[in-house]
Amino acid sequence: MTNLTTKLALATLIGAGLVVGGTVEAAPKKGGILNYVVGSKIPSYDGHKETTFGMIHPIRPYYSTLIRVNPDNPASPTDFVCDVCVGDVPKGEEGGTKFTFKIRKDVEFHDGTPMTAQDVKATMDKIIFPPKGIPSARKAFFKAVASITAPDDETVIFKLAFPTGTFIPALALPFNFIYSKKDLDTHGYTWHQKNVNGTGAFKFVQHQKGSFVEGVRNASYHHKGKPYLDGIKAISAPKLAVRVQAIRGDRASIEFRGFPPKHRDDLVKALGNKITVQESDWNCVLMFAPNHKVKPFDDPRVRRALTYAVDRHGGSKYLSRIAIVKTVGGIVFPNHPFAANEAELSKLAGYSKDIGASRAEAKKLLAAAGVPNLKFVLNNRGVDQPYKVVGTWLIDQWKKVGMKVTQRVQPSPPFYATLRKKKDFDVSIDFNCQSVINPIADITKFLTTAGNNYSAGGDAKADAIYEKLLRSADPKEQRAMIRQYEKRVIDDAMVAAITLWWYKINPHRSYVKGWKIAPSHYLNQHLDNIWLDK
Amino acid sequence: MSKYILKRILMLIPTLIGAAIFVFFLLRLIPGDVCELRLAGTGLYADPAEILLCQKNLGLDQPLFVQFLDFLWGYVIFDLGDSMWTGFPVVHEIAIRFELSLQVAIMATVVAVAIAIPLGIISAVKQNTWIDYVVRTFSIAGIAMPSFWLGILIILGLLIGSQHFFGEPWMPPITYVPIWIDPMENLAQLIWPAVATGYRYSAVATRMTRSALLEVLREDYVRTARAKGLIEKVIINRHALKNSLLPVVTIIAIEFAFLMGGLVVTEQVFNLNGLGKLFVESVENQDFNMTQQLVMLVVVIFVFTNLFVDILYAWLDPRIRYS
Fold this sequence. Notes:
The complex is a heterodimer. By secondary structure, chain A is of the alpha+beta class. Chain A is built from 16 helices and 18 strands. In chain A, helix 8 (300-308) packs antiparallel against helix 11.
């Protein structure tokens, strides 16, 4: 067994350990309504179109997906299980270019229509090959898919143009709601924006706009014996203080996105053992992007000085007490087998534990570039957690090597306008927040041609490495290539820098059982495994 | 009188058109775009073609003047359009929140009047006594204390107090139930924001009642009434109070109009799904259509409240309509 395969197996076993731990709990009780608070708004009900957790948290429980992250082991970045398919998630055939899924026969839409392979094909066609004028937010994740066929009602076959490690994680995205072919044919491709008809654990009852979404137990749910709850109610509460108070006052039992450390501590202090806290690394990372088109940031020495000046290890220790950031990592989610280990990280610019040496290097680079007293403006987003906290910390870090930085904080719309349209910033806070951990897809942000690479620059060598990486099917080779790519994009060419990875904290009422924290607030939101120990 | 009312109504037309122009173009000056926020606001990658498609679907690719004409045409054909964020009709989105905002506004007005009128009278009658000082301190505190801050204190007080006395923290409900479905649940949610806003509102009205009543109490006809030997209670209630309430009615009416769309922060604190919260969300989402229509709704409420007050003035004081 190769070292990497061992790691992949280990990642699954860690999760399996949690499952064993979970079985110590009492048997699930049936009944009850789960009230939970959601800090964002629902744009539409269409998972294929939307990107926000404001839609996922209230709507995901009404839908199924072809495969999903193992709900009993969501901490593992590589453990996927079938949802509406049968058996294990298939391994690729024909050199990793063909995936055959056998579809369950006992799945039914909430309107009573049986679900077949034709529905899965119609759904995936809509996501991957949408007709002109129909939005699909994640079709880029499926670039490798050449065709989808459903030779009978129980089989769906995906054929890929080339083997890629991005396919299975992309298939498990929680946004890939299975729609009924009949609905798509009868009502059109935009019907699901305002209507719900899924095969999920709960049936949609009502949406009181701006207030709550309510659902009841789906008695004919295909995962027999589930869900345990009689119903769910997703309550909209945009203000963080209201969400915290709602849990404290038991108006809601849980919030699935995450609270800052102080609110966790406040809740625990107020309620003691009536609160249970689950914590996890989070597949979101805060970055800073220098504008390569603005002098002196066109000089890689200046860009590298920016990253050398930042004490990530020190920042992790102190910022994690006040903000939702914690983990020091490279470009890949820290717990993934493809992520850089400590020894590999320490070789990258700005990751050494000897911050004195790093800062001396930063000063040397600035002097060599002719800007020993660099002055610039940091463009930041007017959101406290973690943007403003980390932005303020970065300014202090840069000050320690003689840079003079002022912060320009803007509300989200003008912040995005600066980043994407005007592009008139020196250095900007940036971020990368994904759902299913899919390293090869997630790191595209650094590519020269990537639409979300806001540094206006890139690195030809890194682009070439990525092209090979995308077409590799060997995990060992993939990991090695990711290391080369990482060295280029956050060190040698310093396209953009990683600051700290986010850290997810979910304090909830202790009577909420069965839900396990995932490394993303988009995951494990079908809620079929939750029960109330009341 | 009818000529006066007609004149006032005709004056509404240029006011509303001016407001429409102002709102439409001012909103377009704000950088950002609803499609970018929706598709890439969470940090996920958004294909530029998807953003363009979204803009096209929402009509944002049209020249500004065409968008403006569309906006005005909507009033002609009684179609206020759809929310750019949810896709549901604006009328529907506003209607479901209007009821809650109206109830809070009415309850806050009742709280304010119940506090302001008696305290204002007592303060005026007991001018420069310790009672007057207490009332004035109470009302100045109300003006100085933002209602959202008072709201936060109320919620924290309820949580801490209930846990202390009953062992389990209690907070007001965070979802709205109409009063005819569950009156207790409805009042348990709305009484607190009504108190928080009503207190600030009452502080303004108390001070107005006091100063207006003091002014009237110095009038010759009040002195004459006292000289005639009328008892003080009758002088205050029958002669002075009625005449002093004219400016108080104006203040109450304008505050009521403000409450209909102005409880922006208080609604957030109590998680009320009212017009104020919708306002904040639509601005945050760059939902131009919703924001425009909400601003126009507030303009209409203010304009008609002013019209009502003008007519009331004209009815109470004939000198106004003849001038």
